[in-house]
């Protein structure tokens, strides 16, 4: 019998394939050490005596049990307010005003935004602040920001809306005083910012749930697609395309591109950044 710290590459491949099946996230061989360390951690935390015992629990346990806990252990939640400021500035000052004017001309005063991998909430709250700053007739609009993530732990923190100094490092000083309350525990986001933001657990690889996501004007799916392989990336992008309204935009991470896997979007250059528009 092997000890619980003896995990072979063959063992890891079984876990890798299971995670890929459940989430579309794919770990290449260069991620072996990362994957092994987290599988070992979960093996010990669950009290399993061997990898085989842990894997049995992983495969035959409850759907919302250890598989989800391992996924949460594997996901990366690096984020902060106003991350990639130039892109957000382009959205706020170039894309958003033109888009809103078209909707006003059509007598439409609804706006739906999806933060597709919201982590601990900094991105959707940043978008809420931008909307409050940039929309002059704010009170006339029905605004909604849907914030989703597969990780239950980060969603609990997001709903709490309390942040440390690291999350605030790129937040302009005027916004700190206008939209946050400084407490002994950290920076608490004000209710006026939280009002239009709704959090929900969602797996981007779950086709049945993704089919229900419709009618979005803007989707922010930044620094997510890099964790998928070409097959799952193409599937997720197709679902995001279906979720957008015609004329709507999707914003990706700085190093991400979808030009190689789909020609369905129109690539637009806005100053120093790129975004994709649904025709």
Describe the structure.
By secondary structure, this protein is α/β, with parallel strands linked by helices. Helix content is 43%, strand content 19%. The protein contains eleven helices and ten strands. It has helices at 9-23, 32-45, 51-60, 66-74, 85-105, 122-134, 152-160, 173-179, 191-194, 207-210, 230-243; strands at residues 110-115, 142-149, 162-163, 180-183, 186-189, 197-201, 216-221, 244-252, 266-270, 273-277. The strands form two sheets. A seven-stranded mixed sheet has the order 6-2-1-7-8-10-9. Strands 3-5-4 form a three-stranded antiparallel sheet. A hairpin with a 2-residue loop joins strand 9 (266-270) and strand 10. The protein is globular, with a radius of gyration of 20 Å.
